[in-house]
Design goal:
Helix content: 40-55%
CATH superfamily of the largest domain: Winged helix-like DNA-binding domain superfamily/Winged helix DNA-binding domain
Number of domains: 2
Strand order of the largest sheet: 1-3-2
Order of helices and strands: HHHEHHEE
Radius of gyration: 25 Å
Distance between the termini: 63 Å
CATH class of the largest domain: Mainly Alpha
CATH topology of the largest domain: Arc Repressor Mutant, subunit A
Largest sheet: 3 strands, antiparallel
Length: 116
């Protein structure tokens, strides 16, 4: 009683279409979907990373900034997060290649700047 998988699919599609017609719905077999890329979902402006993205879009990272400066700027924007959360958000943006970081020679602390 083995059947060809293609025949099974065609039978199922035909039955679903028939059922949709009886129910008064559309006869389209597949719902229309708009594809969303992985990057589109990451453009959210919520959370610490989202706040950092807003600063990138504003051009705040055109010159190198240290973590305390970034934290203070986010607080001015009304975004209060833990230092570790902001650090992780910065690291995520570095991994996504939005920002780059380097160590300052004087005090050996990380500075973040937009990647060009």
């Amino acid at each position: 009683m083995k059947k060809n998988p293609k025949e099974l699919v065609e039978n199922i599609i035909a039955l679903v279409s028939e059922l949709a017609e009886l129910a008064g719905g559309e006869t389209e077999t597949r719902p229309a979907r708009t594809p969303r890329s992985h990057r589109d979902t990451r453009k959210d402006t919520s959370g610490a990373t989202g706040g950092l993205r807003v600063l990138v879009d504003e051009g705040y990272f055109d010159s190198p900034k240290q973590l305390p400066e970034i934290i203070e700027r986010l607080k001015q924007e009304g975004r209060h997060y833990l230092n570790a959360t902001i650090s992780m958000g910065l690291l995520n943006l570095v991994r996504e290649r939005v920002l780059t970081r380097f160590r300052d020679k004087g005090d050996k602390k990380w500075k973040y700047v937009v990647r060009k």
